[in-house]
Structure formats: structure tokens, C-alpha cells
Amino acid sequence: MGVLAVEDSLGEPIRMHIEQVRDRPASPGGGSHLEVKNRDVVELVYLPTFGCPTRLIWHKIG
């Protein structure tokens, strides 16, 4: 997993955005890598982090 961003606003739960890390496949023609355009997002609500409510936002790949 890789961390994309962490949002910490006063009075709000911490929001941590993570993604799956995989090797990127090369395009069939060779050379360049394919890019992910659409990702499913799963939000896990109120996980405790350092005593603070936290939401984990997982950006899933395929």
C-alpha cells in the first residue's frame, strides 16, 4: 500500500487516502506504461489513530 494523502482538519476525523501498489503493465505496443483511470474507492469509517477518529479511504485498482 502507498499513502496518497492525509487530511487533518480541526474538529473532523483524520482522512488517510491509500492505494494498492502494483507493478504497472507495459502497453501491448511496448515502451510506455498503462495508466489507471478509474478506481473503486472504499471508505472505512472511524478507525482509531493516536486516539483520534480516522477514516481510511482506499483507492482500489481494478
Explain how this protein is built:
It is elongated and about 50 Å long. It is mainly beta. The chain has a four-stranded mixed beta sheet, with no helix packed on it. The protein has one domain. The protein is built from no helices and four strands. β3 (40-49) and β4 (52-60) form a beta hairpin. 0% of the residues lie in helices and 50% in strands. The chain has strands spanning 2-7, 14-19, 40-49, 52-60. The chain starts with a strand and ends with a strand.
Task: Name the shape in a single word.
Answer: elongated
| Count of individual domains | 1
Q: Tell me the fraction of residues in β-strands, as a range.
A: over 45%
Q: Write the element-wise H/E pattern from the N-terminal end onward.
A: EEEE
Distance separating the two termini? 14 Å
Give the helix/strand class.
mainly beta
Average pLDDT number: 79
What oligomeric state do the depicted chains represent? single chain
Major sheet, described briefly?
4 strands, mixed
The helicity comes to under 10%
Number of helices: 0
Beta strand count? 4
Strand line-up in the sheet with most strands: 1-2-4-3
- Uncertain residue segments: none
* Rg computed from alpha carbons, rounded to a whole number of angstroms: 15 Å
